[in-house]
Amino acid sequence: MYAIVNIAGKQYKVAEGDKLKVARLAFKVGEKISFENVLLTDDGKNVKIGKPAVKGAVVSAEVLEHGRLKKILVYKKKRRKGYQRKTGHRQDFSAIKINAIRVTTPTKKTPTKKTDTAKKTTVAKTTKKDSK
Length: 132
Fold this sequence. Notes:
0% of the residues lie in helices and 51% in strands. Strand 1 and strand 2 form a beta hairpin.
């Protein structure tokens, strides 16, 4: 079974037991979290697509660690102007492990009939001849 879930504004395809690095989350290491913004689930037989999210679908995970990714270099230059800038950037991340993907089917409520005690009244249409 796998699911596509929206975590911190990005979409990830996850399955049970997967470990992935996402943008830094504001949770402590070892804390259990759940994501309810599940966009799609597939269990091999049934595919459920959300509009925009699948109702009753929850992905539970655990925070393993926080850290920073490898440094990338940002180099800017304008030719013939003598302008050069070189800076670096390290993105913060949180490593999470997907523990479970649960999909519960919402129970359908049977519609109740409303008894209308008020009588329906009809309004007669007036024509131009009647109004004179």
